[in-house]
Amino acid sequence: MAVFPSTAAAEAEGRIRRPRTKAGPGGATRGPNSRTQKAAYLFIAPIGLGFLLFYIWPMFQTFGYSFTSFGPFGGNSWIGGDNYARVLQDVTVWRAVGNTLLYGAIGLVTLPLSIAVAALLNRRGLRGVSVYRALYFIPFVTLPVAVGLVWNWLYNGNFGLLNEVLSWFGMSRHYWVSDPSSALWAIGLVSVWQSIGYYLIIFIAGIKGIPQDYYEAAELDGAGPVRRFFTITLPLLSPSIFFAAIICVINSLQMFDLIYVMMAPTNPALGSTQSVVSLFYQWAFQQNNQGAAAALAFVLMLLTASLTYLQFRLQKRWVHYA
Amino acid sequence: MRDRLRRVDGGSVATHVILSLGALVMVFPFLWQLLTALKTLGEAVHVPTTFLPEKWNWSSFEEVFTALPYGKMLGNSVINTVGRTVGQLVFCSLAAYAFARMRFRGKNVLFALFLSVLLVPSSLLVLPQYDIIQRLGLLNSAPALFLPGMFSAFGTFMLRQFFLSLPRELEEAARIDGAGPFRIFWSIMLPLIRPALAALAVITAMWSWNDLLWPLVVNTDPAKMPISAGLTSLEGQFETNYPVMMAGSLIASLPMILLYLFLQRHFVQGIAQSGTKG
């Protein structure tokens, strides 16, 4: 659940606000007084300790693990960069990285779908907007494990409804989640289905932020709804789209739940659907290979960071800040 | 004029048709889940498929509860959800207020440290977190489920943003009246950000209820599992008994769907807050 662009925005806001408060009543030079200072530390202490114990210390520990070999009986030894060498040489890792990137690419399909629905919902005088919004959002709040099971049942090769419906059109039976050529797409589609509602809410909020005058002016000039969508809505929505694209890629890189539920350990398509996080889970908790798993986690972080960086670099080409 | 009205109407009909088809795609899997849960196994796997169950058969729902400690698992999920949500509300709001409104030495360094927590993917933390829980002797316990999740950088930043937007005069007035920092926080500032607290609460509740990887790692005893992990063991046990799996998944996801339907406004607020800066 990484949401840092919003906090970057918060930061920016904070930076704008701070000078204003300093210049406020009380004088610019007043230093922190000791009573509020003590209170501030007390306010921060509980979460600070929690972070230290469960987040900051583990970060360093994982780094240490990634240079360690874990013996079966607790004998750990320093092995230098061997884990990283193993990660880089292992074919399954590269397959998992490739699968994960493909999940990310499939995930991006969600954005145009959500934008289209948001634009339709924005139609003036449309009734039932809140009902539609509620219905589209339900898959997002639903337990992913349950979602995976339901879709596995729909996809089922022998008794699934999907094959049944396709057979009406003369298509032959297909084993969607156990055929390596379709399994990843089947899972990716579920993830698209599940997250449409989430991006829908982001885009509805974004569209609400566009001043109504623009539309009225364009209408006076004779621009039709399609034209208005492409010349007003889409460009002015680009900051929201940018944010959504970042969240989408980060979330896709974290794919785990659906894969875990939809792919039984005996499924022949397992290798062609495994994400980096699934592989991490397998190494760390099923094969007791914590050292290599830790190294893999760093590879994932590097992948996430570089994709996010790339997106930030590319945003100048297409994001318009009003 | 009449012509124009008619055209607008035609457009809105088309809009409704498209949106309804989309809504059907979003909702149909849930309908199918319910219908399958009400069928007997024989009917569920019957080809050609029947749409409605011949006879409404509720036995799959009972079977879920006898095959696994499903009631206990639901209870564990509630404990996990409440633990994380209450923890985040308390810890995040305290820290958020300090970062938004108090001046103290080392604020920027601490803030940067908090920021770093936000940027790290959870897979980087799971292994040592597991070790810590193990060393504390808490594996297969309720606190194991919610302990790390009680502390959230996301929640802190979200609430901090709200505190920043409040006018300063209120605090100044209270300070002049002699109220201490905690008093100001608790009885003046906290009530003012109630909408933000509600939004954070429902979003946290949703993530906690739906979380899978962490519970899978720390609580392997079925009696200590939350429902998300419990449902995966149901899957292992009833691999081909589709009505039972559909019944189980329906029971497991219903609480969060109902919470959403009742508290929609706060969910939307929470998502929009985490989404755009507005």
Give your account of this protein's structure.
The complex is a heterodimer of chains A (322) and B (278). Chain A is an all-alpha fold and 322 residues long. Chain A has 14 helices and two strands, in the order ααββαααααααααααα. A two-stranded antiparallel sheet of chain A has the order 1-2. Chain B contains 15 helices and no strands. Chain B has helices spanning 2-37, 41-44, 59-67, 70-101, 107-119, 126-135, 142-146, 153-164, 169-176, 181-192, 194-210, 213-218, 227-237, 242-262, 264-275. The relative contact order of chain B is 0.14. The interface between A and B is large, with 108 and 112 residues.
Which helices and strands appear, and what pairs or packs with what?
The complex is a heterodimer of chains A (322) and B (278).
Chain A: H1 4-22, H2 34-65, E1 68-70, E2 76-78, H3 82-89, H4 91-108, H5 110-121, H6 129-141, H7 144-155, H8 161-168, H9 183-208, H10 212-220, H11 225-253, H12 257-262, H13 276-286, H14 290-318
Antiparallel strand pairs in A: 1-2
Helix pairs in contact in A: 3-14, 4-9, 4-11, 5-9, 6-9, 7-9, 9-11, 11-14, 13-14
Chain B: H1 2-37, H2 41-44, H3 59-67, H4 70-101, H5 107-119, H6 126-135, H7 142-146, H8 153-164, H9 169-176, H10 181-192, H11 194-210, H12 213-218, H13 227-237, H14 242-262, H15 264-275
Main sheet record of chain A: 2 strands, antiparallel
Task: Kindly report how far apart the N and C termini of chain B lie.
Answer: 38 Å
Tally of contiguous helical segments of chain B: 15
| Global Rg of chain B | 24 Å
As a percent range, the share of helical residues of chain B equals over 70%
**Overall pLDDT level of chain B:** 90
Outline:
The complex is a heterodimer of chains A (322) and B (278). Chain A is an all-alpha fold and 322 residues long. Chain A contains 14 helices and two strands.
